[in-house]
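Worked example 3 (structure in, sequence out).
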């Protein structure tokens, strides 16, 4: 049962990363294509908050809670499922911590800069200036 829960946490982790990474690409593509929904204030705020959380964790030297949960649920000697093995290959790399911190902070700055270049709509629904 704990292996199944570990797989669920891993899939949630993957979806979170996909939202953060894919969100920025979708905002730029959507802005170029004229998609109004990419200027939705709540989508953009959630996207900025997500990467700010990740960058903040990295700057403070805090491990991702999803990684900690998965490790706690998964017996280290237990065989991972097929899906879990592939998701792990996509999510986890063996680089020094400073590489990840630099990448997360740079990405957070890119997302923040996107607020200037592709302005979200005002919360009232009025278009951004």
């Amino acid at each position: 049962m704990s292996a199944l829960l570990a797989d669920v946490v891993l899939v949630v982790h993957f979806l979170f990363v996909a939202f953060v990474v894919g969100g920025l690409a979708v905002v730029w593509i959507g802005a170029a294509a004229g998609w109004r929904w990419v200027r939705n204030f709540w989508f953009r705020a959630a996207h900025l908050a997500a990467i700010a959380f990740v960058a903040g964790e990295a700057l403070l030297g805090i491990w991702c809670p999803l990684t900690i949960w998965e490790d706690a649920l998964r017996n280290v000697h237990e065989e991972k499922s097929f899906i879990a093995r592939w998701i792990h290959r996509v999510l986890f790399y063996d680089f020094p911590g400073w590489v990840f911190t630099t990448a997360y902070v740079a990405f957070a700055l890119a997302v923040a800069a996107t607020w200037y270049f592709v302005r979200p709509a005002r919360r009232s629904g009025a278009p951004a200036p």
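Notes: The mean pLDDT is 87. The chain has five helices and no strands.
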